[in-house]
Queue: 2 jobs
Job 1
Amino acid sequence: MTGDEACAEGALAAGCRFFGGYPITPATEIAEHMSKRLPEVGGTFIQMEDEIAAMASILGGAWAGQKSMTATSGPGFSLMMENIGLGVCTETPCVVVNVQRVGPSTGLPTMGAQADMMQARWGSHGDYRIIALAPMSAQEIFFQTITAFNLSERYRTPVFIMTDEIVGHMSEKVIIPPADRIITEWRPKPSGRKDRFLLYKPGKNGVAPMPAAGEGYNVHVTGLTHDEKGYPVMSVEAQEQMMDRLCRKIDDNLDDIIMTEAHHLDDAEVVLVSYGISARTSLAAMQQSRAMGMKVGFLRLITVWPFAQRQIAALAERVKALVTVEINLGQMHLEVTRAAAGKTPCHLVGHAGGTIISPDQVIATIKEVY
Amino acid sequence: MPATARNLTPKSPEHPLEDLIRSDRIPHIWCPGCGIGTAFSAALTAMKTSGLDLQKTCMVSGIGCSGRAAGYVKLDSFHTTHGRAIPFATGLKLGNPALNVVVFSGDGDLFAIGGNHFIHAARRNMDLTVICLNNLNYGMTGGQVAATTPFHARTTTTPSGNPDAPFNLPLLAWASGATYVARWTILHTRELTECIQKAILKNGFSFIEVLGPCPINYGRRNKEKSLQTLKMYQERTIIRNNPQMDDLDVDFTKQVVLGEFVDKDRPTCIENYDKTCRILE
Ligand SMILES: Cc1ncc(C[n+]2csc(CCOP(=O)(O)OP(=O)(O)O)c2C)c(N)n1
Ligand code: SF4
Ligand SMILES: [Mg+2]
């Protein structure tokens, strides 16, 4: 099955029962698959009138008590940004898939890129934290979609899957384990007196329990700066407290959220850093360079946001160079450079998008910096 | 002191909507003479007397003075982004069809930035009740032109008068497929409350336009004192049920038609989805 279909199947396996979407290449197949499968499992699919509506609808779906998802590509991702901010501010669990294509603007609609990485981090206005994962195969997109739902439920926040046209459209064998082997999490549920319930009072992990509409909690949910009760408070102090809570639930749990994969880091002199489809390029480049006798390692970012700052900083202390491989003109490369803090030179292998990066290009850079 | 004696001490009477209002959020932000409060109480009274399970009833608003309504109602209430109350409400309803979902928002919110969502929700016959407080301008941001501002009216962004024509909202709702459409002013609270109640109890997409003054931003620039606006609501309106839909422009230089304009039945979005998409064998 294709990466897009595997993503949809992963969502269903995770318990997603509401999808609000809008067609866009190369993400359309996710919506198509969900439109067929959701009614079979008692869920609901709706094609909204645009991506703004799609994003708003999944926030509504989440407050109705459902695990909710949408999927899009660059132009639609841009339209979703305001309501992604609403999701962050109101601590609404949901999953947004971006099957990245070439931008800016309409760009190359049918060709892959990884150039929305900074938009994923900073695209909505204001300060906030976000969680984003980057799968490198159809099988992985299946599992990562489940993980994305689990993280979004655990931390009550929108979670992104930052995949790309190449992974989305590639056909690979995908093994779907039996349902009882799949761990699915749900948002923490409130207990105790309903009239004393505080919608944003953090419990375990710094995350507040979340009731659904209709359960008798009379919640007030607003994108205005609010207190623990959820009521708007127009003050600098309330803003500081709210932001502190929003950031802390992510910042205090980095070890739980950040997933990386280490390949031959122990003796590495040059380390590749990559994610998504470019991770496959990097793996091949690492293996070929090792065959040529160069001690090359590879750090794969499975979680791209929050950024694996600590891991990069530690590598920067001891390697000759870090090489970021990504299909853009240097986005995560900026983060790698920042985390390396001048301790080691940082290089980029990237281009403006439309095709994968070949292992040869990476090897050429490795040879230069080795 | 004996209990009876204590009971004689005067106690301020309870507000009849006390149980539906977040009294811990009062005072509200609305200006003196503003029409929103009256429309809001009519909506609450209608909800209360409708016999609906209020625990299963939600209010969704967008952004604007009218959009603050969701912040004062003691129900599950959602104050979303500018223009997006309807798609949020759509997700809420589809996520749990047992919920009764009422959207309360402003004319700018629902018909300028959110206009696309309105027509599509009406087309699908989403089971929502949409109440629009139409004050002919963007109150919250200081009185700019809206999609409902009368031709030639003055606002901060039409200092020489509005060069554009306003929407006829009931016509738009009807053409988009709404199954219930009514219009009242805040002077007609009894009719308004009855119609809101009917709309809430009705399956399908219901739309109620409420004309209400914004004396601070619209009235002031158009030489209308609050009382004059209300007088106009009394003298220059006429109640007509089942009128010609294209006679429903809001033009107070002529006469503005009020009443219940559409009340028909067709399958809702959810009914159609269940019938069309769920039976696959
Ligand atoms: C995306 C976005 N654009 C602009 C605004 C600024 N804004 C806030 S309320 C409003 C207009 C509200 O008008 P209306 O819906 O008629 O409500 P009223 O205040 O008149 O009740 C605007 C433009 C915003 N909050 N968000
Ligand atoms: S600005 Fe206008 S609409 Fe807003 S509260 Fe004041 S009178 Fe009402
Ligand atoms: Mg208005």
Job 2
Amino acid sequence: MFTQNLAPVSLIDSVVFGDHDWLENSVEWQADLRLELVREAFAHHLASCPQYASFADRKGVTAEHIQTVDDLVRIPQLPTSVFKRQRVLSVPPDEIVMNFTSSGTSGTKSVIHRDGVTLHRLCGMMRSDSPLFGNYLDGMDETNSTIINLGPSRSDSGNVWFSYVMSLLEQMAPMQSYVVGSDLLLKEAVDDVRRSLVEMDKVFVVGPPFLVSDFCQEVIGAGAPLEGGDSLFVFTGGGWKNRESERMDRHEFNKVVGEALSLADPLQIRDVFNQVELNTLLVECEHHRKHVPPWVHAFTRDPVTFEPLPDGEAGVLCFSDATAKSYPCFLVGDDVARVLSGVCDCGRPGVTMELVRRLRGSSHAGCAETIRSTVQAD
Amino acid sequence: MKTERLDAWTSEGRRVAVWRSAPEDFAPDAPIVVMSPGFARRMRDVGSIALCLVGNGAIVYRFDSIDHIGLSDGDIRNFTLTGMRQSMIAAIELARATENRRGVRLVAMSLANLAAYQVAAEDKDIERIMALSGVVDGHRTITEVTGRDYLSMAREELPAILPVMGHDVDPVPLWTDSRETRCLSYERTIRSLKAISAPVANCVAEGDPWVDVGECTTAYTDGDGGERLVIKLPYSGHDLGRNPVAVMTILERMASLAIGNGPMHDADPQAVLMPTFDAVLEARIAERQQDFSEQRAAKTEGSPAV
Ligand SMILES: [Zn+2]
């Protein structure tokens, strides 16, 4: 009789893939877990990414400096522009599975190199029973639900991160994608939703808000009402991109979409936050706040001094995401937001984030004035 | 990986749905693996294991048991271990007839491990058995899963329906099967293991609430008919398929054991070619589509002509 042992699964994997519900634990409990997970990730990237290690060295921060939850803000963070200029890797190049870019049409794009583990972790979050989605996806399964994707299929999404992420929702339920080449097949998408509402318990329309808006216009234009009732759900992400001028505020968007699709409850519409450099989805709750899971440390910085800001103060949104193995996901982001710790109005304890607006300007270096004016205008 | 749908038949003429997956080109002595998912899991749920085995040169036959969820005859309401064993025998014989060779390896998940031992105890051409979360004491496991020792109750005490892992099961067929064949008993496992001279291995999570590592070690010591190997996984839970990062580690080891030829305890996981992230994802989605379209076809076939 022989006995052998396999290597243990890391803490981050047991949290991402495990079935314990961190939302059932206190804010402090989540903070302690966050400290452990993000510190472990910091140590990994220091040891595996020479560029990041020398950056941290210049900042004079080592893993030993991160002892308490309050120390997490000391972890050196990279401006996203770094990923536009150089290849930043924390794994051997042959482990990289895909190189992703943002979906913007102008300027130099960030390139984020992801390995299988990093992508598996992202996929691991995308399950209907994950606390990440609150109870938005309760009762959804692959036999009773279908997803209508107002975007390209995975094979057509190329290296565009947002399209790829949305297409990954297909692992939760069968999906049809309605962007082919550069065309959105609106009529076909609407017809599919009508058909699916007859055959399925739950139908999800996913896509950026401007395409959801186009979808609603198509429904209205068709003249035949679409009875979404309590079976149709709308999941948006990715912002308004180059159709910023058409942006509706959230209240107005919910009203337009809710009426066009005859939704029983505006809470059937939810938004998700993500960007190519971030490996986690931050999903909106019933109170339109994006909940931050315990493997991500989110906070804001003063736009001028870059000093960390207290809870609830609008500033430049910064992330440390422990699920990224192939690149150091310690980022100064491109958005202005507020981050709050405590019990959300929805009743779930933890950290939540509320976007204020995109930052104007393309890089952080030298754009402090732009950032400041953005924040002060708020 | 090319997957085709085949039908096998039990000795009682019931249809067992089988998926045969093979590499584009394979050696004449390519290992033939027959794989069974556990209770309440379909053959498409073990797609990543099939993908890995096929990627390393094996020909893999997967099946859904009769009287179970999936594409075979019957409903999980009438589940018995004997039905699972008969399905396994049907799949093995189909593999032998199709490949025109006798030697077959078994990969079994959870409860299907008991069926694998019972089959191999009477079939000397089973070359090795590799289990994941393999149950060794069916009676104890079912008691743990259902929360009560229904198998020891008198028949009239049994409830009409027993919810098991999200499925409604009529306890009578299971109870009768257990009484008549002792198929769920620990003693039957030991008897089977003593009769199996082929190598046998089991990957068991240390935190598995339904399969105890110590119980498996004892069973392998008592049932020492050939090489026995317990691989301890420092994870919790029984459904290890949920954690793809853990699956990748387990897969490497499982594949090296399932397709190797030397002693199991010397198998080299480094020699295993792992499937890519994309290949696993695409196979999973493609197999779900295949499963759904076969279900639709079966419904059409079974519905009365208009
Ligand atoms: Zn909330």
